[in-house]
Write a structure and sequence with these properties.
Elements lengths: L9 H4 L13 H6 L4 H17 L6 H26 L7 H19 L3 H26 L3 H24 L13 H8 L2 E4 L2 E4 H19 L1 H11 L1 H6 L4 H27 L10 H11 L11 H20 L7 H25 L2
Antiparallel strand pairs: 1-2
């Protein structure tokens, strides 16, 4: 005969004697459950480190420069983070930015049209590339690594080949004297002065995208779909989640942000080098991982990717302000990636232990 403990009455299990699902979560538990907690801690540490190592780091003008460096990465880190939460990668994101800029420039120059026509054509082509990645992924069932690696190689070759074919060199011709250039520059490459500090418009684009992505993840059905397909695509499909549509939409989101970044590149410098962008896709992924996104999918946040991009900006400019050899930048970036990943893993284990 075995003895069993008497069942605990419901009123003893919960403070109100009601449903367990109505239990209040402590602030500490909610804090530990945030995927960006580790990156915030890392950002504070990096800020304090460079504040002590470089006196000029704390100047208001330096802060504007740091924000600009962070925004150029952050604009792409946001959709890449959402894609990683959905369980996929995009290795073509870096060169797609250059492709977008090249199309705008060359189409406008060759067609002698208003530059806004080139900008619109670039948007359509860039979104088509994103849709191609999503459709190929969902139709062939091949890993996103293989699909987007193929796209990366094709775009790299096309960028160089078409630029040489049309322009005769590896860079585009100037379009600064064409109609619509000044208005396009004001949207994609202007700056505003706040308190004597010049802030690039890319910072506004970045913050707007972070806010939009956060709203999508936390307040919409599509956000639930993203987490579901990243956690377990088969289980999500079984409960009615449109997995193909969700993943294709995520790739098109990456393409849209690549278009924004490409237009900034074009209208900031007027001409575009066809070989730019190679390797930037890894920086976008690093920013997302530092921000708390898991490689396996199903976990992360847009805010975390913003913090990861901000850490990138502080590090890239902090090394300059400290007057160190910039060759050390990649070392610091790799060290931050490892430390942030370990810290994020520890925070997640603590969060699971308190549930």
């Amino acid at each position: 005969m075995t003895a069993t403990a008497p069942p605990v009455p419901d009123e003893d299990r919960t403070p109100s004697g009601g449903d367990e699902r109505l239990l209040r979560t402590s602030p500490l538990r909610r804090l530990l459950g945030r995927p960006e907690l580790g990156s915030v801690v890392g950002a504070v540490a990096v800020f304090l480190f460079f504040a002590l190592a470089a006196d000029s780091f704390l100047r208001a003008t330096s802060f504007g420069t740091v924000l600009y460096a962070a925004s150029t990465i952050g604009i792409m880190a946001v959709p890449v983070a959402l894609l990683m939460i959905g369980g996929e990668f995009d290795l073509s994101a870096g060169v797609l930015v250059t492709t977008s800029a090249l199309i705008s420039s060359m189409f406008s120059y060759q067609m002698t049209a208003n530059v806004w026509v080139g900008v619109a054509v670039s948007l359509l082509v860039t979104l088509a590339v994103g849709a191609f990645n999503g459709v190929m992924l969902t139709r062939t069932k091949l890993p996103s690594f293989i699909i987007t690696l193929g796209t990366f190689l094709m775009l790299t070759g096309m960028n160089l080949g078409f630029t040489k074919l049309i322009s005769g060199t590896v860079s585009t011709k100037t379009i600064a004297d064409m109609e619509g250039f000044s208005s396009a520059r004001s949207l994609f490459a202007s700056h505003v002065t706040v308190g004597g500090v010049d802030l690039k418009v890319t910072i506004l684009w970045w913050l707007a995208l972070v806010a939009l992505a956060t709203w999508i993840l936390l307040r919409t059905r599509f956000g639930n779909w993203i987490f579901a397909v990243g956690g377990n695509a088969d289980a999500a499909r079984a409960v009615g989640v449109p997995v193909r549509t969700t993943k294709t939409g995520l790739y098109m989101g990456v393409a849209f942000c690549a278009w924004v970044s490409g237009q900034h590149l074009l209208f900031s410098f007027d001409v575009v080098q066809s070989g730019e962008g190679v390797g930037n896709e890894l920086i976008y992924i690093i920013a997302a991982v530092i921000g708390g996104c898991l490689i396996t999918g199903g976990y992360g946040s847009a805010i975390g990717s913003a913090v990861g991009a901000f850490i990138f900006g502080m590090t890239s400019k902090g090394i300059v302000y400290a007057e160190w050899n910039p060759d050390w930048f990649k070392f610091f970036l790799g060290a931050m990636l490892l430390l942030a990943t370990l810290l994020n893993a520890w925070v997640r284990k603590r969060a699971e232990a308190t549930t």
